[in-house]
Amino acid sequence: MRSRWNDAQAPGDPVESLVYSSRLIGQESSLVLWGGGNTSLKGTASDFRGREQRVMFIKASGADLKDADRRFYPPVRLDDIEAARAHAEMDVREMVDYVAHCLVEPASPRPSIETLLHGFLPRAAIHHSHADAILALADNESAPELVREIYGEDVFLVPYVIPGFKLSKLTAELARDHPTAAGCILAHHGLVTWGDDCQESYERHLELVTRAEEHLASRLRPDPGAALMDEHERRRLAAMAATSLRGLLFRETRRGVVLTDLSEETLAFLGRPDAGRLSQAGAATPDHMLNTKRVPLFVDWDPASGEDELFRRLGEGVDAYARHYAAYVKRFNPSGEPMRDPPPRVVQVRGLGLFGAGPDLRSATAAFEIARHTLWIQRAAEAVGRYRSLDLADAYEAEYFPPELDKLKLAPAVREFGGRVALVTGAGRGIGKAIAGRLAAEGAVVAVTDVDEAAAAAASRRSSSGSRPAARASGCSLAAQCSSARVTRPRWRS
After folding, report:
1. Are strands 183-186 and 190-195 parallel, antiparallel or unpaired?
2. What is the CA radius of gyration of the chain?
3. In tens digits, what is the pLDDT along the chain, a chain of 494 residues?
4. Per residue in 112-139, is it b (16+ CB within 10 Å) or e — as a string?
5. SS3 162
6. Of 314, 464, 466, 434, whose CA–CA distance to 483 is shortest?
7. What element of type H or E holds 55?
8. Beta partners for 347?
9. Cα four-point dihedral sign 224, 227, 229, 234
10. Residue 43 forms beta bridges with which residues?
11. For the chain, how far is it from start to end, CA to CA, in angstroms?
C-alpha cells in the first residue's frame, strides 16, 4: 500500500494535519468502509475563558473519514479522559456520559465510542482502521501465530473485547508491556497505530498493512473458475432475482434498493465447496453488522435446476432467514427489546451472484460494498488459516450495542423518494431531464432514457452528482435495457 502523504499539500496546522491524514485513510476502501475507523490527535486548546488546556481531538461518532473536516473532530479535555483509568469499571452508558462531560464545547458532536482507547494510549497521534488485510489476520483461528510471524515485536494482538472501557484499559496495559510496538491489532476489529505526529502514525499504518498484504499475497491463489452460464442469461436471471428480492425483502414498506455483483471473482468464490460455511461464519467486524447483519442469506442453487427452482429457493430462503433471525434475537434478548428488521441485507446465490439491499440507495450500497470486501477477507483468511468471526453471544452484543445503534440515528434521513426506482423517458433534455434530476435529488434511483443516448448519458451524470450515493441514474437508449446502479468495486488481489 502506497503512502499518499504529500508534504506540499499537508497542512502545517496540527489539527488540519489530522483531518488530512484521516481523509487519506478514508479514501482507500480497503482500509475503511462507511463510517468505519477513527483518528485522534493530542494537543492544546483554549476553553471559553481563554485558558489553554491539554485536549485530544477525536473523530465524532458516525462521521466518515473520507469526508472529514475540522467540525467532526471535537476536542475533549485530556486530563479528564486520563482520569477515567482510575475507575475499576464503567458500563457503556456511563462511559458515553463521562466522555460527553469531557467535551470542551458541550454542543459538539458526540465523540467516538473509542475515545478512551485513544486517550489512554500515551502517543500524540492515533489512527485506527478496519483494513481488509489486517482483518484476514484478526478474523483467524491462527491470529496469534500470524501476528507474531509477520510483525514480531512491532505489533501486539489484543484479545476481543467489545469497544468500551474494558477494551481501552486492556489496550493501554498491553501497550505499556510492549514499549517498542508501533501499533496493535484488535481481534475481530482492526489495526491501531500511533506516532508523535499524524504523518508518522499514518505512514506506520500503511507500512503495517503492507506487510500483511505481502504475506497474504504470497499465499493467495485464485479460486477455481466457476462453471458459468451464458452471460446474457445470467444477467437476465440476476435482474429478475433482484426484482424478486426487492419484493421479498421490503414487503411492508414497498421501498428498497437491491444491487447486484455478477463478477467472475465473486462467482468463483461462491462456487467454492466451502462457500456455504464461510457465508455463515460471521461478519468481519462488529461495525459491519449495522449494515449487513451477522450473516448473509446463502442460496445453494445449481443453474442446471432451472429458474423456477431459483425463485422458489429465494422465497423460502428469505422467510427462513427472518424466522431464524427472530429466534436469534429472542435467545439473546429475553427482555424483549425492539428487534431490527429481520430480513437479510445481503444475499449470496451460488451460480448467480451477490445481492446487497437496503431501504434506500445509500444503505444498499453500504451493505453491498461491505459484503464484497468480506468475500476477499474470508478468501485471504482461508489462505493462511481458517476464518473465524465472533461467536453468537458476542455477535448479538455487537449488533445491538447501544452506541452502534445510535449511529443509525445519525445517518441522513431517507428522502421523499428514497427506496423508489423511477424510469423517465425523454429525459435527455427539457421537462424529462428536469423530472429525472428532481427525482434523483429526492433520493430515487433513476433510469434515464432517451432516443438520443448521448443526451441521456449526460443527463444521467448531472443527476448523479455528489460523492455520496444518495441517488444514481443510468443512461441508455429506449431500445436498450436499463442498467442497475453502479458502485465502486473493491480491489480483488490474487
Report:
1. antiparallel
2. 23
3. 899 999 999 999 999 999 999 999 999 999 998 878 999 999 999 888 888 999 999 999 888 899 889 999 999 999 999 999 999 999 999 999 999 999 999 999 999 999 999 999 999 999 999 999 999 999 999 999 999 999 999 999 999 999 999 999 999 999 999 999 999 999 999 999 999 999 999 999 999 999 999 999 999 998 886 667 888 999 999 999 999 999 999 998 889 999 999 999 999 999 999 999 999 999 999 989 989 999 999 999 999 999 999 999 999 999 999 999 999 999 999 777 789 999 999 999 999 999 999 999 989 999 999 999 999 999 999 999 999 999 999 999 999 988 777 766 666 777 888 889 888 989 889 999 999 889 988 888 888 888 888 888 888 877 765 444 333 444 443 333 333 333 333 333 33
4. bbbbbbbbbbebbbbbbbbbbbbbbbbb
5. coil
6. 464
7. strand 52-58
8. 297, 355
9. negative
10. 55
11. 15
Compute CA distances 107 → 75, 103, 110, 273, whole Å: 11, 8, 9, 53
Please provide the DSSP assignment of 390-430 as one string. --HHHHHHHHT-HHHHHHHHHSPPP-TTTT-EEEETTTTSH
**Residue 153, class by beta-carbon neighbours within 10 Å (0-12 exposed, 13-18 middle, 19+ buried)?**
exposed
Task: Give the integer Cα–Cα distance in Å for 315 and 408.
Answer: 28
CA distance to 99, 108, 488, per residue, from 60 (Å):
12, 9, 25
10 Å CB burial of residue 400 (0-12, 13-18, 19+) is middle
What is the SS3 assignment for 308-354?
Answer: HHHHHHHHHHHHHHHHHHHHHHHHHCCCCCCCCCCCCCEEEECCCEE
How many Å separate Cα 154 from the centre of its chain? 27
- Rounded to the nearest 5°, which phi and psi values hold at 275? -60, -40
Q: Quote the distance between the C-alpha of residue 135 and its chain's center.
A: 12
pTM for this entry: 0.90
d(CA 339, CA 248): 19
Return the amino acid letter for 318: V
Please tell me the distance from the alpha carbon of residue 358 to that of residue 60, in angstroms, as a whole number. 24
Sheet of strand 52-58, all strands in order from the earlier edge strand to the far edge: 75-77, 52-58, 38-46, 125-129, 190-195, 183-186, 155-158
Contacts of residue 360, defined as CB under 8 A and 6 or more positions apart, other chains included, come to 255, 256, 257, 414, 415, 418, 419, 443
Q: Are 18 and 198 in contact (CB under 8 A)?
A: yes
- Report d(CA 391, CA 437) in Å as an integer: 46
d(CA 494, CA 216): 9
Alpha-carbon distance 344 to 328, whole Å? 13
